[in-house]
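Here we describe the complex-level prediction in full. Unlike the single-chain runs in Section 2.1, the two entities below were treated as one system.
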Amino acid sequence: MSTFLFKHFWRHAKVDRATWSINVIGLAVGLCSVLVVGLYIEYELRHDRHFPQLDRLYRLSLDMADHEGGARQRVAGLPGPAMDAVLAESREIEIAARVFPVNGTSRIRVGQTQANELGVATVDPGFLDLAGVTFLAGDPASALDRPDSVVLTRSMANKWFPDGQAIGRVMNIYRAGDVTVRGVIEDFPANSHLPLTVLVSIHNLPDDFFQLRFWCCNNFHTYVRLLTGANLTSVQQALDRAVARHAPEEVRRELRIVPFPVRDIHLFSDFQRELQPQGHAVSVLIFTSVALIVLLIACLNFVNLATARATQRAKEIGFKRAIGVPRVRLAGEILLEAVLASLLAATLAALAAPIMLPIVSQVAGVSLSPTLLLRPGWLLCLLALACVTGLAAGLYPALALSRLAPVEALRGTVARGRSGLMLRNTLVVTQFTISVVLLVVTLVCRAQMHFAANMELGFRTEHTVVLNNVDDAEIDYAAFKQRLLANPYIVSVTAASRMPDGRWPDPDFALTRPGQPDKTWMMSRLDIDTDFLDAFGIELLTGRMLSDQRSSDRLRRPNAENPLGRAAFLVSRAGAATLGFTTSDAVGEVIEQQYTHQGQRVRGPIVGVFEDVHFASIYQPTLPIFLQLNPSNYNTIAIRIVPQNRRATLAFIDHVWQEVSPEMPILRSFLDAQFEALFRRQEQQIILFERFALLAILVACLGLFGLASYSTERRTREIGVRRVFGASTFDIMVLLNRSFLRLVLLGAALATPVAYFLATRWLREFAFRIDLGPSPWLLGIALATATALATVSIRVYRAAAARPITALRTE
Amino acid sequence: MIELENLHKIYRRRAVETTALNQVRLDIADGEFLAVMGPSGSGKSTLLNILGMLDQPSSGSYRFLDQDIAGASERRLTQLRKQHLSFVFQSFNLLDELTVSENVELPLIYRPLSARERREQVDDVIERVHLGNRRDHYPQELSGGQQQRVAIARALVTEPRLILADEPTGNLDSANGREVMGLLQRFNQAGTAIVMVTHSATHARYGHRIVHLFDGRIVEQEALS
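The structure predicted for the assembly as a whole is:
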């Protein structure tokens, strides 16, 4: 019996080749999308699964309320002394450890070989246990016990000691000095939020290291593993006690330590200063949805075509019912056919997945190997998914077909009823609603990213090299600048406490006007070199630049003896407006900056107003900002070079840096590249979204093609009659397209509010955004309509252009 | 009106060649009522399809109103059909989804006429075939004879010079057959030329001339008084 069924299935598929190909290809594309996106999501969800007892593992992070009621900030790291304070207050912590990472690269030297390495960190010995590292060599218990100890990952050990004898060898690490390798551990997996390679013992830090002693800088990533059964509420109380009892008074009211589950860091962290950019739960949700949508559209095709073809199978079904085959049995047979089609599609999907996987990996920026597909668990999942898909797609056709009355079925007078047509129309409308939504959202995303890339930032980013670790290198800035400017390919050199790098400096400086001490305004501040505005091409609207020729321009800090400091202020247009001045009357006005909570202030005149700049591009609104001349706080240097001779100029910069700072490796980047990196993640998501949207539309069009074929075949006689009585090919094309066009346009109408809702939600992420004009809608609807018309026309043209006698003869 | 010279029609299906029409020579005058008879497979319907420009001859010449038709483009044929020809089929070929008046109106919607003009013409012709009280019915609600009258009305509504009728009484009982033949005769007398394929010798005698086909050749022509 089963052989008979299989044979029947195969013959049926052969006779109705076009429909079955459409069904199987559509389902294959849908299953393949789900399979590939499934792998990507598995990768994202399995982040940090290498940590043991993950359910009890937390990172303690900071939730800070800035003074004067400013914005809250969440920062990944804690001050150095915080861990001991927490351990003193809580009895529910099994183990705690700190990771003090190097920001950027660290110079490592072994013998004559020297290189800059990423992933260097100073860690507590307990970190090895907490992270569950696998030791390949060395003693886990004592590997980090001594100040000169270092543990390397396998690839780092192989790189520096290719002879395989790393243990006991000495390497020189910048700042840590000479250290001895006392352990080699397995590499951290690529999907870990801690991309560490070189672990230096925390005992290496000098006892009087200020970051360890003072609650100043939030650079220690602090992890705790709670005891089994620990209560998070009481842990939080202990953390609050730790701050209240141990933190110095001036920071106490601003700080709150919060536990954050390590398993959630990758997808849900909203903390600043993570060690690497983290994933986004929303992306995972979006990709799951679009992959499922592609599969859903393929299933709708199946239902549509299967019910449309019911007339052709009516005789067979009528006959089977007439000879007494029960309805359930018939429904089962039809369901089985659907499952067989779906299994065939799953086979195709499994074969196609290795082709699709690299595209998704590349766009999503993750590494997914095709061998992941070969795991038995995954193959079983695919099998299960195929069966479920087959059952879902076959259920309605099975019920509808098996319900046919035998007499009508035998007579062939079924399935031309209104309800079948209604169902098919509804499904086509659904498919095109989804397609238009995807298209419009894609077009809106594209327009916004185009807007971002072309937004006038108010300052130059091109050909600008930024050096980042200037404060650590302790260089003589003036001399360095002079050396660089001697090179004719270098246009300008300027310095600041921070460069415009895609994130606004926190607006946490309080300004007042003399005589109005009760009124404060919060603003961002940058300490700059005199030529900062010129170097970035920022327009000065009124007044003058800061000058180091005038001693009153330079910041003179207040101190205990002299609580009133002095400075000259440059404010942005928005800054002037915030203070209640117009651009023209701001110059000459005296303002005060609150310097400490103890009442120290800096007072001085506004000497100039400059045009607003978009430091954070589209992501954050333009905030008011003021500039001061303060050479003691230059953390970064910006060097503008001419585009010609770029390689030699960069080599020259490296060379001069090496001379002024032989110990500290140079950390340089291009400013425009930093801005591009801001958009990259969004862009990748949009590209991936776009590809899935295209797949969805493709599958929807496949279904439409199938329906157009069905409709054309059904109306063959009508086409013949109309042609005989004078209709042209064009008349027939219009006639057959019109009914589909109506459905597509209805889909577009239904899609409009949904797309509007999704697009506005997405755009809310940006402070600066495009106006949602009608163009994405018109273009999206036009594209969907054109694609649908082209699809239908390809099928219809042949029938419409044939000689009328062919159509009549078919009848 | 029509001159056929040495007309051939050969069908090729896989390796088999069938000659449907062989060296057919035939002239049809304006306003003539011509009956075509012959056994099944003698080429009657093929001849009618070629005359109606629904099919092309394999060789030979077909002149319609002094224009050479053989080898004309599909667009040109559509145009000529629209201007001068009309059809009545054995199986009526009415569209189930359209009412009687909509079926009759069908040929007019492909012409530059206003809705009013169309309605007037449709009403007029429906009255002429005595179906005024059935104009809003669907074909499946009518008898065979009534359906064929609708088909004749549809053929007449464009006032063609020539109606091609393929066994118009083949699916009808004798009473209905007579009625349909009476209608055709009346319209012929009003000036419309008719070429009718039929198996019925009685119905063939409504014409001016009978052409007998056998194996694709004209074997006999019989002029009737």
